[in-house]
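User:
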Amino acid sequence: MIMVGAVAGAKAVEGLSQNKATPYIIGGIILVGIGITYFGVIRPILCKTGIADCKSSKKIRDIMSYKGFDPNFARPEKVTLSHDRAKQLATQIYDAGSWYNDDEGAIYSALEEAGSADNLSLISRMFSAMKYGSLAEYITYYLDDADEVARVKDILESY
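Assistant: Predicted structure:
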């Protein structure tokens, strides 16, 4: 029985080696594998570690470095949002940026409601505490074009 399987396997390989399209099929599979590995694994790691500047826009770097996105910036005497409201706004931003609900308007309204760097810092702290990660990274990840980046930058500059 084992001999029959080995013979059948040998015949199949022999048939593939005579097919002129086989090298192209194998080459295509290799190229697709390399592409998936690079764009699915390597590039995200390079972007996350900062080795590759994946979002080279100066406006995005400005947004990322804004003091209000620092969870420890908030000065208690300057914060005007309650912790509950900051948590609601953090959840609103998280829900607005998900892959199934790309709602920039909800992000803009939450940032506008924050109204100050201290309030935004509290929202950022709540966002991080709910295990969502960095608020600045999350928001900039979901900004699809230059107009959206400019809108967020304008909101932050109005504080």
